[in-house]
Design a protein that fits this description.
Elements: H1 10-22, H2 26-29, H3 56-86, H4 90-110, H5 115-127, H6 131-144, H7 149-162, H8 165-177, H9 182-194
Length: 204
């Protein structure tokens, strides 16, 4: 007679054992959280890191410094050109004014709020015969700095060159009202024109 234990074949018993071993542990089954998984390292290869943002303040300061350097370079050329005019070297003076104009123009492109450079764009444009551009540049300079005395004086000179004595005198009145030393030169130029002369080609 075969005993009751022998009724379960060995394969069935083996399957029962495997099922038992595959059951989750008591800690997981009871609701305990699994062991903590460490997050991935925050360090990333340099090749896939996002590019650093440029320091806009430092970049702006560098741009303004460059604009000032261009302005100073142009101003030096302008002084040399004025000296040539006083010596009667008109052609040499014009070439230097043209070179200076390029420096001032670049300065305004780098720093559009640099009103001194706009004023000198007007001055060198006037000296090279481009009154239209000169007026536009003076207007820009005075929009940025309405009380810029030198621009008022140069604008008065430009009006004299264009034959507009009335507006030249308006600039003179403004300068006198502000006790500006620039009034002296413009007044001398106006008196010369009123006496029958032409607007000066010299240093102003």
């Amino acid at each position: 007679m075969i005993s009751r234990r022998s009724r379960f074949p060995l394969p069935v018993l083996g399957g029962f054992i495997c099922l038992t071993l595959s059951l989750p542990s008591s800690s997981f089954a009871s609701g305990s959280p699994p062991s903590k998984v460490e997050p991935p390292s925050s360090s990333m290869p340099a090749s896939i890191l996002p590019p650093a943002k440029p320091d806009s303040a430092a970049q702006a300061a560098e741009t303004r410094t460059r604009a000032k350097q261009l302005y100073e370079k142009g101003y030096k050329m302008t002084k040399e050109a004025k000296a040539d005019l006083e010596k009667g070297k008109d052609k040499d003076a014009k070439k230097k004014f043209e070179k200076a104009l390029k420096e001032f123009d670049q300065a305004t492109q780098l720093w559009p709020e640099l009103y001194e450079a706009w004023n000198m764009v007007g001055y060198t444009s006037r000296k090279t015969g481009d009154l239209k551009r000169a007026f536009a540049a003076y207007d820009r300079a005075l929009t940025l700095s309405p009380d810029y005395e030198e621009a008022h004086e140069y604008l008065g000179e430009a009006y004299l060159m264009s034959g507009d004595l009335k507006r030249a005198k308006e600039q003179l009145d403004w300068l006198k009202a502000h006790n500006s030393e620039e009034a002296v030169q413009l007044e001398a130029s106006i008196k010369k024109v009123e006496a029958g002369g032409s607007a000066p080609k010299g240093g102003w």
